[in-house]
Amino acid sequence: MKQTMFERSAFKLTSRFLQPAPKKGMVIVMCGIIGFAGRRDCAQLLLSGLCALEYRGYDSAGIAVQSQGDLQVRKSTGRLKNLQDIVSRAPVSGSVGIGHTRWATHGRPSEENCHPHIGQKGRIAVVHNGIIENYAALKRSLMERGVQFSSQTDTEVIAQLLEYYYETDLLTTLGKVLPMLEGSYALGILDVSDPDTVWCARRGSPLIVGKGEGENYLASDISAVLEYTRDIYILDDGEIAALSAGEIRFYGPQGQALEKEPTPISWSADGAKRGGFRHFMLKEIYDQPQAIEDTLNHYIDAQTLTIRRESMPFTKEQAQQVENITIVACGTAYHAGMVGQNLLEQLARVRTHAQIASEYRYQDTVYSANETLIAVSQSGETADTIAAVRKAKNNGHRIVALSNVLGSTVAREAHAVMYTLAGPEIAVASTKAYTTQVLLFEILALDLGNLRGLISERELQDCLRELLRLPGQVRSVLERAGQVEHFAHSMRMCRDVFFIGRQLDYCTSLEAALKLKEISYIHSEAYAAGELKHGTIALIDETTLVVATATQERIFLKTLSNVEEVRARGASILLITDKEIQNEGQFQDIWPVPGMRDIYSPIPATVYVQLFAYYMALQKGCDIDKPRNLAKSVTVE
């Protein structure tokens, strides 16, 4: 039979499907997927899973359940509670289903644009994370063939394609349809012809499968299934899986059967719950002493005061040969990378450059021999960071990943991985992931300095001994939360906040400004303190709050001079410092950082500004865990 132009395009795209990642503009969308196949009623389990995933997107949500040869669908715009109310009024019953919580990309948040999407014949339901870049052309071709669409989303195209090209079974159909899709996807699929099975596939967007007793699970994030299982299969790009109550089958890009081994996950299910705290963000701020302690114990032997060699990414030979390090990251992780740049240059004397991943991936980079790229990503799935990793690998660089998620894409693509042991982080604004990323840079810089002969064994032991005190020092900062809350209340009418500092304190200021604007929507900026007089000081007046961080001994007096400059313009001043201060009455407040080496101060200083951002947002009535226009873990390019 003669092929149509539309069908021929599928075969032209097959080679693209077989690649490890899409070649153009890879995007990973911040939405959540849950799926279940078992023998018990699954509606409430799906809703519970979506609750754990709501931080990934909260414009709308929906579920679809196989029920007596039909697909029962419930959808709602807004927060998950709206969907829960609908399901309580109009229950659905079935033991196989999928769910989705959405962060809108194609089409406004509305019921018709909400997932799951159903083909016009009512036989296929699809939930989708990612972006189908050629959806407009695919949609146009289907409409020319009489297919009617009910939404503006790219996802509906997938459901309609699967129905239009449906062959003997869904696996065969997926083999034909998936090559047509350009872009990224993580898919959960129901087929009324196969009522006991949830199908899934991924390319460029994360997806995991959980193995239970007589039931199995699908999710875009481990936190959604922690309550039910710790045995996780991580799908690789191009792979397909079929889940039923008693079986999980895996297939490669060409439909060939695969054998996969599960990865045990050590995270506690309690880590994904609020545990009595008003917000996840506050809980995760208070989780930091334990997260830091767990991470320290993984990398440092407290009895011998040595670094565990098996956990480190550099051998002595590699450490001595490395000439340049580039750190790539986005957002909060980029600020951790800036701390890393300072520490690696100071302690290991390696030329280091921290760069925003979205800039690195497109710039005309000048490469050098013996260069290492360090990729920092909490989720390990950040699109721009993954693209930067692949660019560097193509140019022969060694890749080291810093991630919080076992088996994430960044971790699997790297030559070596350092994991933070922060546990699940649910609030959109990162806290414990950031401080443990900074901690990894502290350990890495000390280790490289030692391996390169710049830090003696005795000096290293002294540094590690003090580093092991860090959990207690963070606890001492948390004990001052009342002071921070009181100050935030006194500044409740403040509309502009400037954070200033030098060197490591400037890195802390950048993270402080981001946290405040993320969750309170207060205008905040960070500046290197010495730059104020080069233009920025024009913005300072009596309505401005200036937060100065001054913990670096060598430049402490320089920073205080800059503080005097803004005081002369009438600004209110908060000082965060580990130094003794004369004339304390000149400041609106002083937050003391526990005495320690200058290189360790960014972590406790950051805990103060996390608390400040939280309490400023709290008194404004902001949705702290789910700030407007934002979602967790990964980015859209």
TrEMBL record:
User: Mind listing the UniProt keywords for this protein, alphabetically?
Assistant: Aminotransferase, Cytoplasm, Glutamine amidotransferase, Repeat, Transferase
Write the Enzyme Commission number(s) for this entry.
Answer: 2.6.1.16
Question: Where's the Glutamine amidotransferase type-2 domain?
Answer: 31-246
User: What is catalysed by this protein?
Assistant: D-fructose 6-phosphate + L-glutamine = D-glucosamine 6-phosphate + L-glutamate
Active-site residues annotated for this sequence: C31 (nucleophile), K632 (for fru-6p isomerization activity)
What InterPro entries does the database record attribute to this sequence? Answer: GATase_2_dom (IPR017932), GFAT (IPR005855), GFAT_N (IPR047084), GlmS/AgaS_SIS (IPR035466), GlmS/FrlB_SIS (IPR035490), Ntn_hydrolases_N (IPR029055), SIS_dom (IPR001347), SIS_dom_sf (IPR046348)
In what residue span(s) does the SIS domain sit?
315-454, 487-627
Instruction: Name its cellular compartments.
Output: Cytoplasm
One matching Pfam family: GATase_6
What enzyme class is recorded for this protein?
transferase
List the molecular function annotations (GO) for this entry: carbohydrate derivative binding; glutamine-fructose-6-phosphate transaminase (isomerizing) activity
User: Per the record, what is one GO cellular component?
Assistant: cytosol
Q: Where are the transmembrane segments?
A: none
Per the record, the GO terms for biological process are:
carbohydrate metabolic process; fructose 6-phosphate metabolic process; protein N-linked glycosylation; UDP-N-acetylglucosamine metabolic process
Q: What does this protein do?
A: Catalyzes the first step in hexosamine metabolism, converting fructose-6P into glucosamine-6P using glutamine as a nitrogen source.
Description of how the protein assembles with itself and partners: Homodimer.
Name by which UniProt lists this protein: Glutamine--fructose-6-phosphate aminotransferase [isomerizing]
Q: What is the lineage of its organism?
A: Bacteria, Bacillati, Bacillota, Clostridia, Eubacteriales
